[in-house]
C-alpha cells in the first residue's frame, strides 16, 4: 500500500511539474498543429512510443487527422506515408533515442517537429522546431529506472496539447459522436433520427383509415412493426395504434375491420423529436412502459418510429 501511494504521488508531482513548465512553446505547438495542412504524425520508441499511440488516438478522436509512426519502421519504408506538410509530434525522455536518426530525414521532407522531452539540450531538442519540457522528476519505479513518472507527465502533456487543439477548433459533441459510433459515448450523443425506422418500416396511416387498413400497413412493414402512426391531412401526428390496441378490441362484439382508427387510436401519443437524443427516447419508453415511440420533425409531422428493439440492438441498456 505504501508503494502504491508513493507511485501515485510521484506521478502526480511529475504532471504538476510539467504544468509549471508550460510557456510560449506550448502556444507555438498548438498553433503549429492548427496551421497544419497535412496530418499530425506521432512517433516515439519503447514506452514513449506507447504513450505516443495513445496521444495519436486522442488527436484522431477529437478532430485532428493523425497517424502513428514507428521510428525504426519509418526508416525502413514507412517514410512513404510522410508528407512535407505534416507536423510530427516526437516523444523521447532522453532526447537521444533512435529519433536522432529519424528527425533529420523528416525535416528534410519539410515536416515541422514538436518534441516532448526531459532534456532540453539533447540532440533531438536541437532538431525540433518546438520543444515541450516534461521535467526531470524522479521515476516512481523503486529502481528509478522504469519509465513511470516521466511517462505520466508525457501522456498528460500530450493530452493537454490534443485537447487544447480540440477546444480551439470548437469541436462539437456531435462531431465527437460521429467518431465514436460504436461506443457508449456515441450512443449517449446519438439522435433519435439516427435510430428511428422510416419508409416502409414505419407504417403511417391517415386518421380516416379503417382498422383493416391499419392492420395491413403494419403487416406490410419488412421489419416486424408493433404500431402504426396516425396522421392528419397535413401529416401531423395525431395518434398511434399498437398491437396491444388490436388485442384489447378482440373482446368487442361488433366487427372491427370497418371501424375508423380515429375511434380506437391513442390520441396525442408520447413522441420524441428527430433531433433529440436517442437516450431521451429510451427514457420516455421506460417511464411510460411503451415499446413503440413516434418520432416527429419540427412541424410535428410523423418522421419515423422507434421500436424498443432498435435501441436494444444498438447497445442501449433497457
Structural account:
- The protein is of the alpha/beta class and 318 residues long.
- It has two domains: 2-171, Glucose-6-phosphate isomerase like protein, domain 1 (Rossmann fold, 3-Layer(aba) Sandwich); 191-313, CBS-domain (Roll), CATH 3.10.580.
- It has 15 helices and twelve strands.
- It has a five-stranded parallel sheet with strand order 2-1-3-4-5, with helices on both faces. It has a four-stranded mixed sheet with strand order 6-7-8-9. Strands 10-11-12 form a three-stranded mixed sheet.
- α14 (278-287) links the parallel β10 (272-273) and β11.
- It is elongated and about 90 Å long.
Q: Concise description?
A:
This protein has 318 residues and is of the alpha/beta class.
Integer average pLDDT: 91
**The CATH topology of the largest domain, please?**
Rossmann fold
The fourth-level CATH homologous superfamily of the largest domain is: Glucose-6-phosphate isomerase like protein, domain 1
CATH level-1 class of the largest domain:
Alpha Beta
Radius of gyration: 29 Å
**What's the number of structural domains?**
2
What is the CATH architecture assignment of the largest domain?
Answer: 3-Layer(aba) Sandwich
> What is the count of DSSP helices, taking H or I runs of 4+ residues?
15
Number of strands: 12
Give the percentage of residues in beta strands: 15-25%
Report the end-to-end length measured between terminal Cα atoms. Answer: 39 Å
Main pleated sheet = 5 strands, parallel
Amino acid at each position: 500500500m505504501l508503494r502504491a501511494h508513493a507511485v501515485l504521488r510521484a506521478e502526480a508531482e511529475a504532471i504538476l511539474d510539467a504544468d509549471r513548465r508550460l510557456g510560449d512553446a506550448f502556444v507555438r505547438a498548438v498553433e503549429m498543429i492548427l496551421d497544419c495542412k497535412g496530418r499530425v504524425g506521432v512517433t516515439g520508441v519503447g514506452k514513449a512510443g506507447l504513450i505516443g499511440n495513445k496521444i495519436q488516438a486522442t488527436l484522431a478522436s477529437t478532430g485532428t487527422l493523425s497517424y502513428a509512426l514507428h521510428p525504426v519502421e519509418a526508416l525502413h519504408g514507412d517514410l512513404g506515408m510522410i508528407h512535407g506538410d505534416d507536423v510530427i509530434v516526437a516523444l523521447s525522455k532522453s532526447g537521444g533515442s533512435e529519433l536522432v536518426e529519424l528527425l533529420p530525414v523528416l525535416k528534410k521532407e519539410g515536416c515541422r517537429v514538436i518534441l516532448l522531452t526531459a532534456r532540453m539540450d539533447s540532440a533531438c531538442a536541437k532538431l525540433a522546431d518546438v520543444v515541450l519540457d516534461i521535467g526531470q522528476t524522479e521515476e516512481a519505479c523503486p529502481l528509478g529506472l522504469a519509465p513511470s513518472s516521466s511517462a505520466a507527465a508525457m501522456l498528460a502533456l500530450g493530452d493537454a496539447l490534443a485537447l487544447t487543439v480540440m477546444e480551439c477548433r470548437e469541436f462539437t459533441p456531435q462531431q465527437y459522436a460521429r467518431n465514436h459510433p460504436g461506443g457508449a459515448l456515441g450512443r449517449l450523443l446519438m439522435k433519435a433520427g439516427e435510430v428511428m425506422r422510416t419508409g416502409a418500416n414505419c407504417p403511417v396511416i391517415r386518421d380516416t383509415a379503417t382498422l383493416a387498413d391499419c392492420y395491413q400497413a403494419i403487416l406490410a412493414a419488412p421489419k416486424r412493426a408493433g404500431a402504426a402512426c396516425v396522421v392528419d391531412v397535413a401529416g401531423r401526428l395525431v395518434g398511434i395504434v399498437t398491437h396491444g390496441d388490436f388485442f384489447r378490441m378482440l373482446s368487442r362484439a361488433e366487427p372491427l375491420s370497418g371501424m375508423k382508427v380515429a375511434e380506437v387510436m391513442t390520441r396525442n401519443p408520447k413522441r420524441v423529436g428527430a433531433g433529440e437524443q436517442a437516450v431521451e427516447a429510451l427514457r420516455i419508453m421506460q417511464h411510460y412502459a411503451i415499446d413503440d415511440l413516434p418520432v416527429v420533425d419540427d412541424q410535428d409531422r410523423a418522421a419515423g418510429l422507434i421500436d424498443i428493439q432498435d435501441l436494444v440492438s444498438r447497445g442501449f441498456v433497457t
